[in-house]
Each structure stands twice: as C-alpha cells, then as structure tokens.
Amino acid sequence: MRKLVLLALVGFGAQLVDGSLGMAYGVTSTTLLLAIGTNPAAASATVHLAEIGTTLASGASHWRFGNVDWKVVWRVGIPGAVGAFLGATFLSGLDTSVAAPLMSVLLLALGIYVLTRFTVAGVRRDRLGQPLRRRFLAPLGLVAGFVDATGGGGWGPVGTPAILASGRMEPRRVIGSIDTSEFLVSVAASAGFLLALGSAGIDLGWVLALLAGGLVAAPIAAWLVRHVPPRVLGSAVGGIIVLTNSRTLLRSEWVDAGDATRWAVYAVIWLVWAGAVAWSVRAHRAERLVLEREAAQERDADRSVTR
Hints:
Number of domains: 1
Number of strands: 0
Largest sheet: none
Distance between the termini: 72 Å
Number of helices: 11
Order of helices and strands: HHHHHHHHHHH
C-alpha cells in the first residue's frame, strides 16, 4: 500500500511538472520504476499505459485553457505515434548506451539556447504566429516518439525545446500542444509494448497509481501554464533541459564524472538557472509596467478626442 501511495505522489508531481513545462513525466516515473528493479521494457510499458489517461486529461485541460494548436498536434503527433510504436517494438534489442549521450548533447545545446534567449530577449513577437512547417514537425515527431518509447520518456524533452527554439509559438501553446499530442504517442507505444511483451511484468496497480496522481495534477498544471508569463516559463523550461541533460552526460560512459564533480556542476547550473528565472521575472514586470503606461496613454488620448 505504501508503494502505491508513493507511486501516486510521483504521478502527481511528474504530471504537475510535465503539464507546466511540457516534459519530465516519463523520465521521472520510469526512473523510480527502474530504481526498484523493474525491467526497462516493463517500466516503460507501465509508464506509457498510465500516460494514456494522464495525457488525455492534460490535453483536455490545456484545450480548455486555450493552450493547444491542433495543427501542430496532428502534424507532430501522428509521426510521433509511428516512432513510438517502432521504438516500443524493438526496445528489447536496442542498445541506447551510445545514442543517449549523443541525444543529450543535442538537447543540452537546445536547452542553453532556449534558456539564454528567453532570459535575455524574452518572446520574439515578430515570429509568433508564423506556421510551423510539416517538413520540420514530421521528422521531429518520428524521432521524439522513438526516443520516448525506448527511453521511457523523451517526448517532451525532445519536442518542447525544438519547437520553442523556432520562436513561432508562445511557450504555453508549445507545452499544451506537445502534451496533447503525447496521447497519440502513449497509445502507440502501449500497443507496441503489449504486442512485444504481452502483459508480462506490467503491474496494473502501479499503472492505476501513477494514473490517479497524474489525473489530479493535470488541470492544475494547465491552469498554471496559462497564467505564468511566457518569458518566465521559457527560462524555467530551458533550465530543466540543461539540468536534465547535464546529469545524463556526467553519468554517461563518455564522461563518467565523480560525485564531487557532478555536484559542483549541478550547483553552478542551479545558481545560473535561479538567476535566469529571477531576471526573467524582473524583466517581465518591467515590460508589463511599460505596456500598462502605453495603454493608459491610449485611453487618455481616446478620451481627449471624444471630448
């Protein structure tokens, strides 16, 4: 019973982060399952089965708060489903010891870019609203879906920074669209796992516990992403990406850093991340004051004309 309660809390926390920042549900939940000795394929299958419910609830909540671009959902989600099915089917024979560090290098570079741009420049209004091309979204979905199924998580960490880096969507709409499209990925990955594994090694109680926690958190996260300023949200997402992939690289065979080195790097990242978010909050407040003054001046001008 204690384990089920813990899993429900993990599901709640993972979905709160995932629904707010567009990533980390699968990574967090799969990490816990692996820590207690679950087979990697069974752990990923358990998480993806739970995600069918959590992503459906999250997508509905994001749609309710106006955070979803349905063209992006279909254009990235359908290829993502294909990639997830393939990744789930071949997980047992796939060696990701080399692929994971390579992907982390790419994601770390994207994370630094996103963190820097949103902290320093904010949201680029000149490109917001421009359409995202299918030739960009389809390959992105295929790769992200494959990584998600084989790694037990990755749809958000791959998809969110790539679309954020385009500068063509507000962070809240990127997160809402990625979370909504993840439903298609979860269904396809679960089908692939059930085809390859059957129900062996999948604990239905664990699935339901993760699902219960995620369902409670989904509407809270959708409300949160609706009300957090885009500049602050972009800095927060960038920090998550940098921290997560730095950890993967430092623990990989490529680097194999010692505990002291790893914790020193983590401390620096946390300090830089906290400073970036604080700067973004301060910059957002300054921008809001300017906009309020301009709006007040326009109202005064309108009143003088009517008189």
